[in-house]
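Justification of computing resources. Each target in the renewal requires a structure prediction run like the one illustrated here; the chain below, 264 residues long, is used simply to show the kind of job we budget for.
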Amino acid sequence: MPDYAIQIGKVEKVYGGKLPVHALTGIDLTIVNGEFVAMLGPSGCGKSTLLNLIAGFEEPSAGEIRVFDQIVVAPGPDRAVVFQEPALLPWLTVWDNIVFGPKLRHLAIGQYQDLALEYLVTVGLEGFERHLPDQLSGGMKQRVGIARALLARPRVLLMDEPFGALDAQTRLQMQQLLLDVWERQRRTVMFITHDIDEAILLADVVYIMTARPGQLRSRIEINLPRPRNLDLLMEDDFNQIRREIFDQLRAEVLSLPKSPIRLK
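Resulting structure tokens:
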């Protein structure tokens, strides 16, 4: 029997008010332990909403979400989130930002120091321990956020467009870094992106969502060999998968209703 990390059953999310917004409907999804899953879809389709539900930041309006067979009712140490903006504490050094979680839990330094040093080296920040966030580039700040999330030792890593604000070169560097880290640790990852190439390069499975209310349009297995590196972007098999995903996303965009243009 598969070892499921995440099980989502008939989940819906409606934001109330005078004009209710139906963000998600009929989401059924299972993610196997150790699987890397990427989510693609039009802006506003509910990708981030789904991630927030799994993280426990919000509650579904209907349905159920389980993480390692436990119903999600709140955030928990089994899940860590990396956002598009790393949200570092500006008055703390790189080191203190990375170890902020263990310190907050009043753990003895011996319980986390060696692992924190390991992650500091893993994400390429050795020598920057005493730097403040405003002394770092965007990519370096995101590395701090990833190291901080890894130090929490989550079983599930939730990533909401973590490289979306980076320049093209830094984004490629961060993608390779994440590939290398995942190969060593094989944590379950749910990764939200708008970038087709990024999704194919990183993921075992890519889900494509419809426009709001978000539903799962299709599931595409990425049967490309691992370990992977950036050279894969030039392979014919990669381009074939890219065309398949692009065609599905284009079909979804073309199916959206056209709003009339109102001239004043």
